[in-house]
Q: What sequence folds into this?
C-alpha cells in the first residue's frame, strides 16, 4: 500500500511536460544507439554525463533510464534485418530473426521483439517496484561458487545452438573458449597468450567477436556466394506484421522470457546476455516444432527479446537498493548518481524517495513510449531489406569499423575485426555455427574465474560446489538439462516418438 | 530538447558561480584520458576534473575518453604511442597503475610519460560483513595468525593498492605475505556484493566505496589505513591497534612523452588553478579525498621513491608471476580445440573429395566469387592502413566503394557518391554528435 502511494506520487511527478520530454529524448536516443553496432548504452550515458550537469538529477536519470531500456529495444533491429547484432544481448535474436527476415517476415520478427520487450519491460518493472529489497537480499547469497554453477547451467544451452553437426558446433564453442584465454589472468595478474601486445592484455572484446563474426563475416560470405545462387534474395515483401498464429506462438515465450530474464538480471553476473541463451534453449525444448529453430521460428525471437528487457530491469534492482552495479551501464549510472552527491544503496529510498519513485514511474512511461515508437517503425525498418545490396553491405562494413575502432581507439582492433570476419566467413562456408563461439568467449573466462575464486576462498577445498545448496542445485539442474532428453527418450520411447 | 526551467537553472548556476580567475581559458579544449571503464576511480577523478576545469573557466570545453583494461596499462600504452608530443591531453594514473606495471611486467612504465601533478589521496578501509564473527581487528588477526589461508582478503585488481595493504598487514603481524589468500576483483563494484554477502572474510577498498554501507550498518569498519583517526569515520587506525602500517592510495595527472616545456608548464598551471577552485574543493569533501597536490618537480621525486617502495613490497608478496600456476584449464581448452578441429576437418575433407569428384574444374562462378572477395580485401587493407594516417572519412569511403563494387560493378559513380555521403555522415554523427573520437586525418581542418 505504502509502495502504491509512493509510486502514485512518482507518476504525478513523471507525468509533467519536462519529465515526459526527457523520457522521450532518452528512449529515442536509446533506440538509436541500440541499432548501431558497438555503440552501447554505457558509452552513450558516459558521453551525456557532462551535458546533464546543468539538469536536476531527476530529469537526468529519467533520460538515462530511457536510454537503457531503449537500447534493448533497438539492439534487435540490426540482428533481425542484417544479421549483425547491435548489442551482445541480441546475438541469439539474430539466429531465427534473420531467417525470418530472409523469408520476408522481418516485420513480424520486429513486431514480436517490440511487443515482447514491452511486456517483459513492464512486468519486470512491476517486479522491481514491489520486490526489489527481498530480491536483492537473495542475490547477495550468490558467491563465486554459485556463479560458477550458473555459468555451467548457461553452458548447457549450447546444446540448443549446435546446428547441424555436434562436432562442428563444439569446434565453434572451443574456438570461443580459446579466444577467452587471451589476456591478463585476473586472479594472479599474469598475462596469458597476449604475445607482448599491450592491447591484447585485456582479452578480446566480445563486441569485436560479435561484429566480426556476424556483420563482417556475413558481408564476406554474401560476396562469396554472389553470382552463384540467388535463392537467399527475398522475393516476398510482406510488411504486415504478426499473424494470428504468430500471436499465439509468441505470448508464452514472452512470459517465460520475462520469468528467466528478471531474476538472472538481478544477479550481478553476465548482465543481460546469459538470460537470452537460457530463454532460447528453453523455447527450443518446449516447442512442438524444434526443427524450425534456426530456420525462422518466431519463438526464438520472442523469448530472448523478452528475456533481455526483463534482465535490463533486473539490473536496476541491486543498483537502486544496494548501490551495486552489475552491468557496464549500471556502473556509469552509479557514477552519475555520485556526481549529483547521491549514493544509491540502502539509504537512497529514504533519503531521496522523490527521485527513486519518479525514476521508476518514468520507466513504465518509457516502456509505453518505446512500444509506440517501435511498432510503426517495424514495417519501416523492414524495408531496409529493399536497399540495393551493394550499398547495404558497404554501409554495414563502415558501421562495423566505427564500432570496433571506438571500443579502444586502436587500429589493432580493426585488424582483429577483419580477421574475425574472415574466420566467420570460413565458418559459414563450412557450416560451422557462429553463436557457440560467442557463448564460449563470454562464459569461458567467467566460469574459470569464478571456479578458481571459489576454490581460493575455500582454501583449496573442492567440496564447496556440492556443500553449498544453491550451487549444488544449479549443477544438478545443468546435468539434468544435458542428460534429460536422452533419459526421457530411453525411459519413455513412446512419448519421444510423438 | 530545449527546456525553459533547465535553461533558467543553468543561467542561475552561471550567475552564482564566482567569476573565473582568468578571463581567457587556458585551453580551448582539453582531453582527459581515464585508463579505465566508466565508473571506476580514474574515471571518477577525470569527470570531477572535467567539471571543475569547465566551471572554473580554466578550459572552454573538455572531454573524457575511456581506454579501459589491465589496470590502466592498456591506456598507458595507447597514451605513450599515439599521443607523443600532444600538448592538450592528460591522463589519470596512480598507485594502482604503478602496481599493475610491476605485476604485469609491463614493457612501458611511468618513466615513459611526463609527470604533471599528484592530485589526491584516499585511505583504504578494512571491513567485514555485519554478521561476521570478527568484532575487532584483533579477532581477525588472531585467526589470521593461526590459519592464514582461512582468511580470504577481497580487494581490487592483482598488484593494486589493496593487495599491497594486505601484504603489509601480514608482514607487520609476522605472517609471511605470500600466505595471504588474496582474492582479486576487477574493482569495487564487483567486490562489494561479495563482502556484503559474506563470500570473502574481509573486504579492502577506498573509503568512499564502503562509506554508505558503513553508515547503513551492513558492513563493519575494523580499521582505516590513515596515520591518524578521521573525523568522519568511527573506526580506529591500524597504528592504534598495534599494526605499524599506514597506506594512502594516490592519483595523479600525466602528460604524454615528448611534450614541450611550454606545454608542460601550461598543463601544470591549469591543474594548479583547478585544485584551488571551489568545485574541486567540494568534490574532495564529497568523496572523502585528501588534497595531496604536488607540482611536477616534487611529484617526479615522489614517483621515484614510490616506485622503489612498490617494487620492494610486491617482490615480498611474490606477485608478478613465476610462482602462480594458472591450472590445467588453458591446456584443456586448447586440447579440445585441436581435437574437434581435427575431427571436423576430417569430416569436411571426406565430403570435399566426394564433391570434387562430382564437379571437376573451377567454374566461372568461383572466379566471380574470388574477385568479389579480393575487392573487399583491398578495401579492408586500405581502411586499416589509412584510418589513422589519412583519416576516417577517406578510409571509409575506400572501404564502402570497394565493397559496393564487389557486389555490383555496374554503377561506379552512384556508389562513389554514396560512399562519400555515408562516410561523411557517419563521421559527423559519431565524432560530432556522439563525441566519439574518430581520426579526422588530413581533412582535419575541413570537417
A:
Amino acid at each position: 500500500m505504502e509502495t502504491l502511494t509512493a509510486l502514485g506520487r512518482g507518476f504525478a511527478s513523471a507525468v509533467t511536460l519536462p519529465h515526459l520530454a526527457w523520457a522521450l529524448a532518452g528512449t529515442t536516443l536509446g533506440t538509436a544507439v541500440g541499432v548501431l553496432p558497438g555503440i552501447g548504452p554505457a558509452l552513450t550515458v558516459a558521453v551525456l554525463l557532462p551535458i546533464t550537469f546543468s539538469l536536476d538529477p531527476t530529469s537526468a536519470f529519467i533520460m538515462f533510464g530511457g536510454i537503457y531500456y531503449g537500447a534493448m529495444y533497438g539492439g534487435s533491429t540490426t540482428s533481425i534485418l542484417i544479421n549483425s547484432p547491435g548489442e551482445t544481448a541480441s546475438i541469439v535474436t539474430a539466429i531465427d530473426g534473420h531467417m525470418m527476415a530472409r523469408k520476408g517476415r522481418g516485420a513480424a520478427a520486429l513486431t514480436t521483439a517490440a511487443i515482447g520487450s514491452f511486456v517483459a519491460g513492464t512486468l519486470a518493472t512491476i517486479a522491481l517496484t514491489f520486490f526489489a529489497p527481498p530480491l536483492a537480499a537473495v542475490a547477495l547469497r550468490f558467491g563465486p561458487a554459485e556463479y560458477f554453477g550458473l555459468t555451467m547451467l548457461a553452458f548447457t544451452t549450447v546444446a540448443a545452438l549446435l546446428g547441424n553437426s555436434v562436432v562442428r558446433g563444439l569446434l565453434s564453442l572451443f574456438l570461443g573458449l580459446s579466444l577467452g584465454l587471451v589476456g591478463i589472468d585476473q586472479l594472479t595478474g599474469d598475462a596469458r597468450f597476449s604475445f607482448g601486445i599491450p592491447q591484447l592484455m585485456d582479452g578480446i572484446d566480445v563486441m569485436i567477436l560479435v561484429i566480426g563474426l556476424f556483420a563482417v563475416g556475413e558481408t564476406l560470405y554474401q560476396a562469396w556466394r554472389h553470382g552463384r545462387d540467388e535463392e537467399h534474395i527475398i522475393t516476398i515483401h510482406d510488411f504486415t506484421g504478426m499473424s494470428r498464429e504468430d500471436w499465439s506462438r509468441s505470448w508464452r515465450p514472452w512470459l517465460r522470457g520475462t520469468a528467466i530474464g528478471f531474476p538472472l538480471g538481478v544477479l550481478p553476473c553476465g548482465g543481460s546476455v546469459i538470460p537470452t541463451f537460457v530463454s532460447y534453449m528453453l523455447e527450443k525444448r518446449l516447442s512442438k516444432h524444434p526443427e524450425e529453430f534456426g530456420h525462422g521460428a518466431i519463438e526464438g525471437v520472442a523469448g530472448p527479446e523478452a528475456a533481455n528487457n526483463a534482465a535490463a530491469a533486473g539490473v536496476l534492482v541491486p543498483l537502486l537498493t544496494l548501490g551495486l552495479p552489475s552491468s557496464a551501464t549500471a556502473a556509469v549510472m552509479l557514477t552519475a548518481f555520485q556526481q549529483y552527491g547521491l549514493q544509491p544503496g540502502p539509504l537512497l529510498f529514504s533519503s531521496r524517495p522523490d527521485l527513486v519513485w519518479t525514476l521508476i514511474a518514468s520507466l513504465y512511461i518509457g516502456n509505453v513510449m518505446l512500444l509506440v515508437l517501435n511498432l510503426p517503425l517495424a514495417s519501416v525498418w523492414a524495408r531496409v531489406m529493399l536497399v540495393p545490396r551493394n550499398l547495404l553491405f558497404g554501409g554495414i562494413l563502415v558501421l562495423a569499423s566505427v564500432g570496433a575502432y571506438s571500443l579502444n581507439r586502436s587500429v589493432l582492433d580493426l585488424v582483429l575485426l577483419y580477421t574475425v570476419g574472415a574466420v566467420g566467413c570460413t565458418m559459414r562456408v563450412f557450416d560451422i555455427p557462429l553463436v557457440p563461439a560467442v557463448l564460449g568467449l563470454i562464459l569461458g573466462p567467467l566460469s574459470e574465474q569464478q571456479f578458481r575464486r571459489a576454490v581460493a576462498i575455500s582454501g583449496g577445498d573442492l567440496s564447496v560446489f556440492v556443500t553449498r545448496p544453491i550451487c549444488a542445485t544449479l549443477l544438478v539442474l545443468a546435468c539434468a538439462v544435458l542428460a534429460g532428453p536422452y533419459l526421457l527418450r530411453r525411459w519413455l520411447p513412446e512419448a519421444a516418438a510423438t | 530538447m530545449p527546456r525553459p526551467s533547465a535553461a533558467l537553472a543553468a543561467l542561475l548556476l552561471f550567475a552564482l558561480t564566482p567569476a573565473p580567475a582568468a578571463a581567457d581559458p587556458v585551453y580551448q579544449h582539453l582531453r582527459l584520458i581515464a585508463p579505465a571503464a566508466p565508473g571506476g576511480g580514474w574515471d571518477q577523478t577525470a569527470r570531477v576534473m572535467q567539471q571543475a576545469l569547465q566551471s572554473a573557466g580554466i578550459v572552454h570545453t573538455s572531454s573524457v575518453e575511456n581506454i579501459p583494461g589491465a589496470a590502466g596499462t592498456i591506456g598507458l600504452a595507447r597514451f605513450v604511442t599515439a599521443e607523443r608530443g600532444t600538448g592538450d591531453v592528460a591522463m589519470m594514473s596512480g598507485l594502482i597503475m604503478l602496481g599493475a606495471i610491476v605485476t604485469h611486467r609491463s614493457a612501458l612504465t611511468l618513466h615513459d610519460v611526463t609527470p604533471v601533478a599528484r592530485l589526491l589521496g584516499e585511505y583504504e578501509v578494512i571491513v567485514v560483513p555485519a554478521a561476521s564473527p570478527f568484532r575487532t581487528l584483533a579477532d581477525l588477526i588472531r585467526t589470521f595468525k593461526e590459519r592464514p589461508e582461512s582468511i580470504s582478503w577481497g580487494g581490487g585488481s592483482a598488484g593494486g593498492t589493496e593487495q599491497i595493504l594486505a601484504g603489509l598487514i601480514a608482514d607487520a603481524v609476522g605472517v609471511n605475505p605470500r600466505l595471504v589468500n588474496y582474492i582479486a576483483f576487477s574493482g569495487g563494484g564487483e567486490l562489494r556484493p561479495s563482502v556484503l554477502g559474506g563470500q570473502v572474510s574481509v573486504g579492502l577498498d577506498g573509503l568512499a566505496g564502503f562509506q554508505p554501507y558503513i553508515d547503513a550498518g551492513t558492513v563493519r569498519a575494523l580499521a582505516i589505513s590513515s596515520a591518524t583517526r578521521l573525523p568522519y569515520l568511527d573506526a580506529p587506525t591500524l597504528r592504534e591497534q598495534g599494526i605499524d602500517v599506514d597506506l594512502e592510495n594516490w592519483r595523479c595527472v600525466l602528460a604524454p612523452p615528448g611534450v614541450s616545456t611550454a606545454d608542460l608548464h601550461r598543463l601544470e598551471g591549469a591543474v594548479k588553478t583547478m585544485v584551488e577552485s571551489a568545485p574541486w574543493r567540494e568534490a574532495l569533501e564529497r568523496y572523502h579525498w585528501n588534497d595531496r597536490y604536488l607540482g611536477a618537480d616534487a611529484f617526479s621525486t615522489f614517483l621515484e621513491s614510490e616506485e622503489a617502495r612498490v617494487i620492494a613490497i610486491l617482490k615480498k608478496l611474490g606477485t608478478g608471476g613465476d610462482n602462480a600456476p594458472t591450472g590445467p584449464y588453458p591446456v584443456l581448452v586448447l586440447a579440445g580445440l585441436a581435437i574437434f578441429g581435427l575431427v571436423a576437418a576430417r569430416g569436411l575433407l571426406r565430403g570435399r573429395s566426394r564433391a570434387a569428384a562430382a564437379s571437376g574444374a573451377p567454374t566461372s562462378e568461383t572466379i566471380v566469387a574470388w574477385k568479389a572477395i579480393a575487392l573487399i580485401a583491398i578495401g579492408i587493407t586500405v581502411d586499416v592502413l589509412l584510418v589513422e594516417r589519412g583519416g576516417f572519412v577517406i578510409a571509409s569511403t575506400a572501404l564502402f566503394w570497394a565493397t559496393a563494387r564487389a557486389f555490383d560493378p555496374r554503377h561506379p559513380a552512384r556508389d562513389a557518391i554514396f560512399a562519400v555521403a555515408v562516410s561523411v555522415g557517419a563521421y559527423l554523427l559519431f565524432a560530432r554528435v556522439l563525441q566519439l573520437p574518430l581520426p579526422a586525418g588530413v581533412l582535419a581542418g575541413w570537417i
Summary: Residues 86 and 140 of chain B are 50 Å apart (CA to CA). Chain B has a mean pLDDT of 83. The longest strand of chain B covers residues 114-129.
